[in-house]
Design goal:
Elements: H1 7-12, E1 31-32, E2 37-41, E3 50-51, E4 58-68, E5 78-90, E6 95-109, E7 118-126, E8 128-130, E9 132-137, E10 143-146, E11 149-155, E12 170-174, E13 178-180, E14 185-193, H2 194-197, E15 198-201, E16 204-207, E17 211-215, E18 219-225, E19 236-241, E20 246-251, E21 257-260, E22 266-273, E23 275-277, E24 283-285, E25 296-301, E26 306-308, E27 312-313
Parallel strand pairs: 4-14, 11-16, 18-26, 18-27
Antiparallel strand pairs: 1-6, 2-3, 2-6, 4-7, 5-6, 5-9, 5-10, 8-13, 9-12, 10-11, 14-17, 15-16, 18-21, 19-20, 19-22, 22-25, 23-24
């Protein structure tokens, strides 16, 4: 059953402007892993650790982290603190390879990452293909503060992909496909979509963690306006890839602007939804839109494309 959200709570956990500057976010002082090991396995498997024998060809992967914002949540009145433990890469056998590791949780306010990236770190992997990565979070140090009140966070993940039955670590699977040969260096961008993830109910923030990922750093930005040229706020902008899968979403700010990150190079349909239910079960309705279906357009992205679309008339 979806948790309900009162109007007052929705104002607390709803979309904020994504165009504001928060300065340059510091890098997480994580450890770049140079020794390759199976460090964790998926749920129902036995945890094992065994180093690679010999000197196989290696590839380097660097990860950056952004965030999609919340209505009413700004740097001055809110914090969504995530305790980041590291990142694992998942190979085609389902085994986990330690990529980035922090000795203790690095607590990062995700709302500071709307316009500048956090450098999570980098690590070495045996050359090959990894269909996904896992962002490792510490539930004990993951909290939300709004207007001076700190709320506990409960991860609401029906398919918790972690070997630890006590769930003392939350492993968030990111559909980031990494493939490289020996000596190759790759960069990828993750987007922790707090907009899609958070639902405040009965004094608790329930989080259905939703993180998008893409190779390199393409970005789509633009605005949504009505027929009179006025901004459409709280609309959901959706990037759908050529296979018909939603790659990522972003809300429009009070001025109608949006940014979409954490996607791969390729072709996307960019569409606007005036009513949208997030993965966490919150229904968000646009304000300022005209009646009728939302607009859409096609865009093709290169590895580092920074595409600014013409205003979408909603």
């Amino acid at each position: 059953m979806k948790r309900s959200l009162s109007a007052a709570v929705l104002a607390a956990l709803a979309l904020s402007a994504c165009g504001g500057s928060h300065g340059t976010a510091p890098a997480v002082p994580g450890k770049s892993v140079t020794s390759q090991a199976h460090v964790r396995h998926l749920k129902s498997q036995i945890r094992t650790t065994h180093d690679i024998v010999g000197s196989p060809p290696l590839l380097r992967l660097t990860l950056n982290l952004f965030d999609a914002p919340l209505i009413g949540a700004t740097a001055s009145n809110a914090k969504f603190n995530a305790g980041i433990l590291g990142v694992d890469a998942i190979d085609t056998n389902g085994d986990s390879w330690q990529l980035i590791a922090n000795a203790s949780p690095q607590v990062v306010n995700l709302l500071d990452l709307q316009s500048s990236a956090l450098v999570l770190g980098d690590g070495m992997l045996p050359a090959g293909t990894y269909p996904s990565v896992q962002l490792l979070l510490d539930p004990a140090t993951t909290t939300v503060t709004y207007n001076g009140t700190t709320y506990p966070v409960v991860f609401s993940d029906p398919d918790h992909p972690w070997w630890d039955p006590t769930q003392t670590v939350e492993a968030v699977t990111v559909p980031l496909s990494v493939s490289g040969s020996g000596g190759e260096s790759l960069t990828a961008t993750l987007d922790f979509n707090v907009f899609q993830s958070a639902n405040l109910s009965d004094g608790v923030v329930f989080v259905t963690p939703t993180v998008a990922g893409g190779i390199s750093s393409p970005t789509i930005s633009g605005s949504v306006v009505n027929a009179a040229g006025g901004p459409v706020a709280n609309a959901t902008v959706i990037a759908t890839d050529a296979s018909g899968k939603i790659a990522n979403t972003a809300p429009t700010a009070a001025d109608g602007t949006y940014h979409i990150r954490g996607i791969n190079p390729g072709e996307y349909t960019i569409s606007v939804a005036n009513t949208f239910t997030t993965n966490a079960g919150v229904t968000v309705t646009a304000t300022g839109a005209d009646d009728g279906a939302g607009p859409s357009t096609l865009v093709v992205l290169g590895p580092d494309s920074q595409v600014s679309l013409n205003a979408l008339r909603d």
